Amino acid sequence: MHKVIESSIISRHGPPSEIREFRVEAQQNRVLTWKLKLETVSLECFRSGENAQYFAEAIAVYPKEPRPVPSNPGVQQPPASGRR
């Protein structure tokens, strides 16, 4: 099933920017990441056994981190909540 989801994301956004594979005990994990203009999308998959197929465990979407506001000495920034 993960191939259907992966193919859908690739058709929309192109190949993943990063692929990480790692083991946790007997389980093989694979995380495909797409770094897009406004967000980062990760498809998290796992499999048990060397010849088993991967299964999609989660799709995570994270907004891009806003760039920090430059600090200007002597200029007071309003609090993040908008209250003064």
- Main sheet characteristics: 4 strands, antiparallel
In angstroms, what is the radius of gyration? 19 Å
Shape: elongated
> Can you give the helix content as a percent range?
10-25%
Low-confidence stretches: none
Element-by-element helix/strand order: HEEEE
Q: How would you describe this structure in keywords?
A:
single chain; four-stranded antiparallel sheet; mainly beta; 84 residues; Nuclear Transport Factor 2, Chain: A
Task: Please provide a brief summary of the model.
By secondary structure, this protein is mainly β. The protein has a single domain (2-63), classed as Roll (Nuclear Transport Factor 2, Chain: A).
Topology (SSEs and partners):
Blueprint: H1 2-13, E1 18-24, E2 27-35, E3 39-48, E4 55-63
Antiparallel strand pairs: 1-2, 2-3, 3-4
